[in-house]
Amino acid sequence: MHCWWVNQNATWKQEIAGGYMWCPKQARNGAYNRFFDNMRRVAAGDVVFSHYGQRIRNIGIAQCRAITDDRPFKAERFPEEQQFDGWLVRVRWQPVPTPVRPASHMERLRPHLPGRYSPLNPVTGMAYQRYLVHVPEPLARVLRALTGAADVEPPA
Q1: What domain count does the chain have?
Q2: pTM for the complete prediction?
Q3: Which residues make beta-bridge pairs with 49?
Q4: 131-148 b/e (C-beta count within 10 Å ≥ 16 → b)
Q5: Which residue of 22, 89, 97, 129 sits 20 to 30 Å from the alpha carbon of 35, by its own alpha carbon?
Q6: In angstroms, rounded to a whole number, what is the distance separating the alpha carbons of residues 53 and 136?
């Protein structure tokens, strides 16, 4: 089992309500994007921390590996660029008992941030603009404790 951090600012309503994560396979300019490609690494049973509005607000369990699928929602930000070719992972989401603003807990989080491809800036505590980032187990333990999700079992 792996843990992941997904930044869902523009799409959180659709993704949480719809029970999935979705991203294009490439950046708008056609370039490779490591953080989109991470979707192919997600496996059933992986834990996902959902971050939007500067807080971790939901936790989910991936239900499958990524599949190729059309965008399941209309793009509000770039309606002229629909980018239908993307990755979709079904996720069972539930709210965390205590939504957490990571920037307020950097003393506890900083020692566990990966040196490369961290979800958070280690100085400011603000999330980097990356869609999906791997979360090392020590960091996942702290996030689960802070959010009160240590014993939370996503609904079946």
Answers
A1: 1
A2: 0.89
A3: 5, 59
A4: bbbbbeeebbebbbebbe
A5: 97
A6: 23
